[in-house]
Design goal:
The chain is an alpha/beta fold. It is built from 7 helices and 7 strands, in the order ααβαβαββαβααββ. The chain binds S-adenosylmethionine.
Amino acid sequence: MSGTTAAAEFWEARYADADRIWSGRVNAVLADVAATLTPGRALDLGCGEGGDALWLAQQGWRVTGVDLSPTAIERARAAAAAAGIRTADLHLEAGDLATWQTTDAHDLVSASFLQSWPVVIPREEILHRATGFVAPGGHLLVVAHAGAPSWADPEMARTHPFPTPEGDLAALQLDASRWEVLACERRERSITAPDGSPATLDDSVVLVRRMGERRARMVP
Ligand SMILES: C[S@@+](CC[C@H](N)C(=O)[O-])C[C@H]1O[C@@H](n2cnc3c(N)ncnc32)[C@H](O)[C@@H]1O
């Protein structure tokens, strides 16, 4: 079985096994970054149940969200319909980002926690491919868990290849004459652990900007 097939089966089974996995809320780093940008076209890589993609659409972005799991995409579509988001503003698609293609250029490409454990995905290749989806003047944001939470399966802490900001930046393989690095750092985030106790998580944050003039915003 190929790595991607195994990941597709793993994630589909994981989503199918529960009514909902994630909170449905936007990820904090994405919200902070997007708040500094003028809305345009956005692409959410590994959008899961759509927390980020729906939020972006509600902020005036025209969004495409892609995820390996058809169940997650169906769930995101249902949440978008319930929130009254127009399909013209949010396109959700099941696809494998190792091969997925688009001819659209995006003002913001975001990968929030595009990680897979215990089944590995070709993450570095996917991140490198993502640079090709960014419009001149556009931004690419990669946010990842940089370490296991305190309550995680010890096997995960031992075997999951947790990303580092430097590693993710290197994976992008940027041409320094065409890209500006705006952030490459670890950020600590306070959260509530499943048992209700306060805890912290380490995020790896990489934000880069493709040089060039951003085009005028399209009118739908
Ligand atoms: C940890 S979840 C994060 C989901 C979402 N971004 C969020 O923050 O709630 C990782 C997601 O990446 C998706 N994924 C993993 N490999 C993928 C691939 N090759 N192509 C598309 N999506 C993928 C999984 O299906 C899963 O929904």
